[in-house]
Amino acid sequence: MGSILDIYTGYFGLSARPFAIAPDPDMLYWSNAHRRAYSLMEYAIVTRAPITLVTGEVGSGKTLLVQHLLRNVGDDVVFGLVSQVRGKAEDVLPWVLLALGEPAEPEDTMVDLFSRFEERLIREYAAGRRVVLVFDEAQNLSDTALEQIRTLTNMNTGTDELLQVFLVGHSSLKERIVGTILQPLAQRIGAACHLPAMDAETTGEYVRHRLRSVGGNDDIFTDDAVDLVHEHSGGLARLVNQLCDFSMVYAFSKGNPQVDDLTVMQVINDGVFFAGQALLPPAAREEVMHIPVFRSRATPQD
């Protein structure tokens, strides 16, 4: 017997789950904002911008865009993806070295770590390659750690940058960097882009794109359903995915060939779409009704 996901995708004639939460570069939707951001990121690499800042709301697709960049830049670029650093400046270099496949032992001094990092940069430069470090979730870094990253980008040959850095994080990161303490870092940023939440029209295009990507029809979601998805997700791709995924499960459970606005509202009222509750004002959360919705597919609909 197939799993619930096999049944759900098969019921709608889909080759895979269209609204999975995990980032999938093959499912990337190129909104105008994503195209602008990606073009700027490519331009930053070509022009050897020392630091590039990529910000966006939670779930806006920043990580997905970075993953696409990692997969599609030429062999003359060596990437190191750093996503584990939490705060202290002394934590930065070990994670950077590990991201580049270099050893970093607990007994290594900062001098040892820096020397090993510098040697790697010079080696790559001599081979005609550039090193790009991507710090994902960079809003978690302390000001001291961000300042240390800035100092790493000072390494150059006199004419060429040996290292480029992408700082990828929430919108709050930009606000921190423009503050007085991090002004030296702000002055090293050669390019910056921001991924906003999707508007209603873009949300509709996004939903239809995800359905088409797995062999589905545009009309699986009615227009009213998409409008409701946008309203309750705030246009954030991650939340759109969650609400659409639950809505398709509900529609399947009731034997409905389409996801309509009633089905989406039932998901919301049931409290299943928990992340979306945070977008509602407190009074609206109090008014949410919990209406049982799962029924046998053999049960006649009201």
Q: How does this structure look, described?
A:
It comes from Paragemmobacter ruber. Pfam families: AAA_22. With 302 residues, this protein is an alpha/beta fold. The chain folds into two domains: 4-20 and 198-286; 32-195, Rossmann fold. Helix content is 47%, strand content 11%. The chain contains 14 helices and five strands. The chain has helices at 4-11, 32-46, 62-72, 92-99, 110-126, 143-152, 171-177, 183-188, 200-213, 223-233, 237-253, 261-270, 274-277, 282-286; strands at residues 51-56, 77-82, 130-135, 163-170, 189-195. It has a five-stranded parallel beta sheet, with helices on both faces. Helix 6 (143-152) links the parallel strand 3 and strand 4. Helix 9 (200-213) packs across helix 10.
Q: What is the spatial order of strands in the main beta sheet?
A: 2-3-4-1-5
Radius of gyration: 23 Å
The separation of the N and C termini measures: 29 Å
* Strand proportion: 5-15%
User: What's the total helix number?
Assistant: 14
Number of strands: 5
Percent helix among the residues? 40-55%
Order of helices and strands: HHEHEHHEHEHHEHHHHHH
Summed up, the domain count is: 2
Oligomer: single chain
Envelope shape: elongated
Organism: Paragemmobacter ruber
Domain AAA+ ATPase: 48-202
InterPro entries: AAA+_ATPase, AAA_22, ExeA_AAA_ATPase_DNA-bind, P-loop_NTPase
Protein name: AAA family ATPase
Quick structural overview:
By secondary structure, the protein is α/β, with parallel strands linked by helices.
List keywords for this structure.
302 residues, alpha/beta, Rossmann fold, 2 domains, 5-stranded parallel β-sheet, 14 helices, 5 strands, disordered C terminus
